[in-house]
Design a protein that fits this description.
With about 425 residues, the protein is α/β, with parallel strands linked by helices.
């Protein structure tokens, strides 16, 4: 019986910018014994004097996807491998990436103090309640309100909306001033204070604090750095569902285009939203359904389209006033532009622009499994078109007629005033009603 050879573990060492003094005895022993050392160019240079001259050195800059294969090939040859990573390799570091691609038994993480912890220590800020975030990703340019999830700052802005204290790993592209400009663009400049810890553990280390966000938006900072953000005023508690119609700006003097409170609540319920749902809002009007959906889907995203320029501008103002970031608005007429959106978990149609049958066909093709299409109609003709299209697509569907009456004062008493009836049509792809 032949036993499999014992594979030498790859050691992932957390290091800091004060060099060799940041390593414990065990980590230093592994580094000096390594036959293959992998790290960024700057880190390899920092530890060059302590790497065996015969050892192979590989710069992972721009080659992260190749690192698992480098390690695997070296281990097959029985070589001792070390990966150098900044701070704690399991805190927004390379260790999680490698663990997902290599057998967990073949790696060992020897962590150091995270640079986020160090930054908190320099300012005396407890970090147990902090949200640790990272924008160490590709350069996506400055933040533009309404940007989709692919933007490099999108996840950070979501974290900022949901947390009071944050510690952020930056990058040479996604810098502290860029983060500050995003806060200004989103109307959050007066809600936060910022500190920047530059070149931690280097002789040129500097801590910059007490800055106004507007000032930080125009300041250069030395790289590498870490950003700390904390709220200077508390977040107001938010209603998640059932906002009154008056919460939304509407077009005037014309009658406001808004899905009324009662119809909106039922429509949102029928969309079967989850925290991470991708939602389409077609014919956004004042944006009420899509914006409430964005609040409910805090880890998801809403894509909205509105053909009327004045209404599109109102949607943008409502989004800003409500402090919502996971919402992208397109000024246009559906179905143009929908091909660029992520496939939806739920779709709401409040207005079709005369393309209703085509829209229904497109939506049923793009909906994710078990996804819901919810449509509101006030005319018999549009209801008829929708039902015919759903039958043609062999969808599963149902219709609810909602009639609401609201109390209104009359002299010293009250009467009930009826709202226009609305048909709510709900459908899923597949099956026959």
């Amino acid at each position: 019986m032949t036993l499999d050879p014992v594979i030498e573990k790859c050691r992932i060492l957390g290091v800091l910018d004060d060099g060799i003094v940041s390593l414990g005895a065990k980590a230093l022993e592994h580094l000096r014994a390594a036959q293959l050392v992998i790290g960024g160019a700057r880190t390899l240079q920092m530890f060059a004097a302590h790497i065996e001259p015969a050892a192979v050195q590989r710069d992972l800059t721009g080659a992260l996807s190749q690192v698992p294969e480098w390690i695997r090939a070296a281990q097959t040859q029985g070589q001792r491998v070390v990966v150098l990573a900044t701070g704690d390799p399991l805190c927004h570091g390379i260790a999680a990436f490698l663990a997902s691609r290599l057998c967990i038994e073949t790696i060992e993480v020897i962590p150091n103090v995270s640079t986020l912890q160090l930054a908190c220590a320099r300012l005396g800020l407890p970090w147990q309640d902090m949200k640790f975030s990272s924008v160490h990703s590709k350069d996506a340019g400055d933040w533009v309100p309404g940007s989709p999830p692919g933007h490099g700052l999108y996840a950070l802005l979501r974290d900022i909306r949901q947390h009071d204290r944050l510690a952020i790993l930056t990058s040479p592209d996604n810098t502290p001033d860029r983060i500050a400009r995003m806060l200004v663009a989103e109307g959050l400049a007066d809600d936060f204070e910022m500190a920047v810890a530059e070149r931690l553990c280097q002789s040129t280390e500097r801590i910059v604090s007490g800055m106004a966000i507007g000032a930080a938006a125009q300041m250069p900072f030395a790289d590498p750095n870490v950003v700390l953000l904390w709220r200077s005023r508390l977040r107001a508690p938010q209603v998640l569902l059932g906002l009154p119609d008056a919460s939304f700006e509407q077009r005037h003097p014309e009658k406001g285009l808004i899905t009324k409170h009662e119809v909106r609540a039922v429509s949102l319920a029928r969309l079967q939203l989850r925290a991470d749902s991708v939602v389409w809002d077609i014919g956004a009007g004042s944006g009420s359904v899509g914006l409430e959906a964005a609040r409910l889907c805090r880890n998801g995203h809403v894509y909205a389209i509105e053909k009327n320029a004045d209404d599109a501008a109102i949607v943008q103002r409502n989004r800003l006033a409500m402090g919502i970031s996971n919402h992208t608005l397109l000024h246009g007429k559906a179905p143009e532009g929908l091909q660029d959106w992520a496939d939806p978990d739920a779709v709401f149609v409040g207005g079709s622009g005369g393309e209703l049958a085509e829209l229904i066909t497109l939506v049923l093709q793009r909906l994710k499994p078990q996804g819901w299409l919810v449509m509101n109609f006030v005319t018999i003709e549009n209801l008829g078109v929708a039902v015919a299209a759903l039958k043609e697509q062999r969808a599963t569907w149902d219709v609810l007629q909602l009639q609401a009456s609201r109390s209104k004062p009359i002299l010293h008493m009250h009467r009930m005033a009826a709202e226009n009836p609305v048909w709510i049509v709900c459908a899923q792809a597949g099956g026959v009603a």
